[in-house]
């Protein structure tokens, strides 16, 4: 009986080993031919397979992105012949010198100022929203918060801009609300201000600012809320226990810890405003921003070098901005 059991156990072990060998032979690559040799090499060195798979997209991105970037930089060092209108392929800084002409410098200052104001306003609006969501919203209310913040991003960018053009128009709903509240005089007084006013909100810098703020606000709210989530409640309680007022707690505890999130959000709002073309084209006055200047120079004027030089301006500005943001720890809040 014992011998029979031993024989059965031996047979079972042999069958198990045979099954294992068959499964391994099914998994392991074959040995024959070039295909088998390559399969065996990739099987033994998976990093080589990963490099081989990543090489084509890396080359594609390198050629398309970096290639176009270097081509753009090269064009900015050329100039255009004022008599023939043809590009002169000789290295020069003449085109960059044209950026300091009063008209072109005014475009740069206008764009940077608008980007800075939109970023500051977005931070002021996003902070209380993010603080409420981080400290008080729980469960389904936090889910509703995320849906409310993300919902504008789900609709078409152009649809939102054209909708705001109708809202801000002379016969739009905003003017109708001011009329019903008997505040037409206030709207007219605001539009009479030389720089920020205009015929209506839809053709003024105020309208451009409002649309920028609405479109880019979610990109500020989410990083700020994420940074405020990381502020320990015990720090706030300890500040109160030590006799600090709510204002002192905000200045010395909450704001410094939330600052990386604010800077992280400003990276999006500032850069997106700096390079946007559509919003100033649809909503706003006839004065150009950098995006419009690039389009006008390469399209109507045919001055490719000047258009390239205009394009380099926001790239340089954002380079310094990102360097400062990194030093402030903004990337940790993304």
How is the secondary structure organized here?
Elements: H1 2-27, H2 33-44, H3 46-76, E1 79-80, E2 87-88, H4 94-98, H5 102-135, H6 140-150, H7 157-168, H8 173-180, H9 184-191, H10 205-229, H11 233-241, H12 246-275, H13 278-282, H14 290-298, H15 304-327
Antiparallel strand pairs: 1-2
Kindly list the characteristics that best describe this protein:
334 residues, mainly alpha, MetI-like fold, two-stranded antiparallel ribbon, 2 strands, globular
Overview of this structure, please?
The chain has 334 residues and is mostly helical. The protein has a single domain (98-333), classed as MetI-like (MetI-like fold, Orthogonal Bundle), CATH 1.10.3720. The protein is 75% helix and 1% strand. It has helices spanning 2-27, 33-44, 46-76, 94-98, 102-135, 140-150, 157-168, 173-180, 184-191, 205-229, 233-241, 246-275, 278-282, 290-298, 304-327, and strands spanning 79-80, 87-88. The protein has a two-stranded antiparallel ribbon with strand order 1-2. Helix 10 packs across helix 12. It is globular and about 75 Å long.
Amount of beta strand: under 5%
- Residue share in helices? over 70%
Mean pLDDT across the residues is 82
Sequence of strands across the biggest β-sheet: 1-2
CATH superfamily: MetI-like
CATH class: Mainly Alpha
Our count of domains comes out at 1
Query: For the CA atoms, what is the radius of gyration?
Result: 31 Å
Anisotropy-based shape: globular
CATH architecture classification name: Orthogonal Bundle
The topology string of helices and strands comes to HHHEEHHHHHHHHHHHH
Largest sheet: 2 strands, antiparallel
Which structural class is indicated by helix and strand composition? Answer: mainly alpha
Distance between the termini: 71 Å
Poorly predicted regions are 1-9, 12-16, 20-30
Specify the number of helices.
15
Number of strands: 2
- At the third CATH level, what is the topology name? MetI-like fold
């Amino acid at each position: 009986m014992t011998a029979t059991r031993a024989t059965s156990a031996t047979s079972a072990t042999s069958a198990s080993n045979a099954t294992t060998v068959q499964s391994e032979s099914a998994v392991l690559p074959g040995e024959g031919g070039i295909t088998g040799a390559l399969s065996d090499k990739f099987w033994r060195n998976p990093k080589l397979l990963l490099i081989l798979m990543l090489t084509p997209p890396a080359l594609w991105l390198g050629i398309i992105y970096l290639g176009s970037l270097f081509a753009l930089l090269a064009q900015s060092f050329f100039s255009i012949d004022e008599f023939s209108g043809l590009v002169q392929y000789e290295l020069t800084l003449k085109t960059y010198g044209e950026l300091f002409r009063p008209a072109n410098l005014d475009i740069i200052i206008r764009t940077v100022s608008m980007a800075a104001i939109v970023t500051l306003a977005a931070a002021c609006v996003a902070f209380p929203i993010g603080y409420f969501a981080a400290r008080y919203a729980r469960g389904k209310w936090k889910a509703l918060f995320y849906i409310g913040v993300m919902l504008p991003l789900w609709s078409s960018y152009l649809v939102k801009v054209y909708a705001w053009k109708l809202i801000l128009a002379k016969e739009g709903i905003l003017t109708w609300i001011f009329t019903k509240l008997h505040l037409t005089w206030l709207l007219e007084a605001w539009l009479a201000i030389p720089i920020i006013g205009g015929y209506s909100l839809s053709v003024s810098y105020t309208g451009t600012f409002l649309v920028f703020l609405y479109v880019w606000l979610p990109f500020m709210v989410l990083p700020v809320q994420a940074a405020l989530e990381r502020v320990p409640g015990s720090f706030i309680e300890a500040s109160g226990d030590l006799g600090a007022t709510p204002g002192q707690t905000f200045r010395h505890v909450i704001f410094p810890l939330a600052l990386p999130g604010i800077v992280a959000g400003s990276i999006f709002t500032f850069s997106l405003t700096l390079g946007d073309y559509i919003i100033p084209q649809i909503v706003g006055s006839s004065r150009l921003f950098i995006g419009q200047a690039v389009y006008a120079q390469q399209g109507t004027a045919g001055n490719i070098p000047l258009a390239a030089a205009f394009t380099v301006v926001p790239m340089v500005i954002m380079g310094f901005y990102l360097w400062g943001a990194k030093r402030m720890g903004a990337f940790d809040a993304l």
